[in-house]
Write a structure and sequence with these properties.
single chain; alpha/beta; Rossmann fold; eleven-stranded mixed β-sheet; two-stranded antiparallel sheet; about 25% strand
Length: about 290
């Protein structure tokens, strides 16, 4: 069942949205399986064909950073990634490419996360991101700390960019969500950590914002992130958040996590830089309970 302004338990922090606001800024879904929740969410935003046109190339960027099985919630839910690839191809995409600059061995991350299998089964392509030769330099004229970055060439060549992070804790950034997930498309992540991590995360948005952000909150790692220690770190939330506004998506996910968006440095900075809306009361939010 679906509706606007519906009470949704854990989603109450998203608050009521202006009744007359249009179009929908953000969709929050709760209570279903990962693929089914995405189907409901993308339909509420107008369908995948609103974002992907016939003949276009698409990059889908999950979190595939760690050599962990899905139940550890260190990586994006493979069922969700597979469904997004399937929907892109159904909308007419020429090809759908998936990659991440993994922290552990990329072959093991791709395989043991379940994402490689799901992507290939859906008709998508997996690409490596473990070598500097895959990256091209870009200049960020409006970055405060991040002035130049090497970005994966597939992102520069794609028509559509869909960002699919998993919501989880992070030792350095407090939470890892949509903005933090973009560190997986750049080569020199060490620069971020040495030169104000939060500001660098926000600065990247001066160069490129995803066309769509789909936040996996099916299983949520509440502590010991970003890799996790055991399944005891994980809470089953069966939730999903989707928005074209990366700041709003991260703000809503932070609320779901149990924190205030303004307390997260890169989210607050990105809002103040004009990259999106942190105040959820100003958004038209559709909440769907399955």
């Amino acid at each position: 069942m679906a509706g606007v302004g519906m009470s949704m338990g854990a989603f109450n922090p998203l608050s009521a949205s202006p009744a007359a606001a249009n179009p929908i800024d953000l969709v929050a879904v709760k209570g279903g399986e990962a693929a089914a929740m995405f189907d409901k969410a993308i339909a509420a935003l107008g369908g995948m064909s609103k974002f992907v046109k016939k003949g276009q190339t698409v990059v889908v960027k999950p979190n595939i950073g760690w050599d962990k099985a899905p139940e550890f919630a260190a990586n994006t839910n493979p069922e969700l990634v597979g469904r997004i690839v399937e929907q892109c191809l159904k909308a007419g995409a020429k090809k759908v490419m998936v990659f991440d600059f993994s922290c552990d061995s990329w072959q093991k991350c791709y395989a043991n996360s379940g994402i490689e299998k799901a992507v290939k089964a859906a008709g998508g392509q997996m690409h490596p991101a473990n070598d500097e030769s895959y990256y091209r330099s870009v200049t960020l004229k409006n970055g405060k700390k991040l002035k130049i970055v090497k970005e994966h060439h597939l992102l520069q060549e794609a028509d559509v960019f869909i960002n699919v992070p998993v919501l989880k804790s992070h030792g350095g950034a407090t939470v890892s969500i949509a903005m933090k997930n973009l560190m997986g498309v750049v080569w020199d992540r060490g620069f971020y950590h040495k030169n104000d991590l939060h500001q660098c995360i926000a600065d990247y948005l001066t160069h490129r914002k995803p066309d769509l952000n789909v936040i996996d909150a099916y299983r949520v790692m509440k502590r010991n992130g970003p890799k996790g220690v055991s399944t005891s770190d994980v809470v089953l939330m069966k939730s999903l958040i989707i928005s074209t506004d990366i700041v709003a998506a991260d703000a809503a996910a932070t609320k779901l996590f149990g924190l205030e968006p303004s307390s997260i440095g890169h989210i607050d900075m990105a809002h103040k830089m004009g990259h999106g809306q942190i105040d959820l009361d100003k958004l038209n939010i559709q909440r769907i309970k399955m």
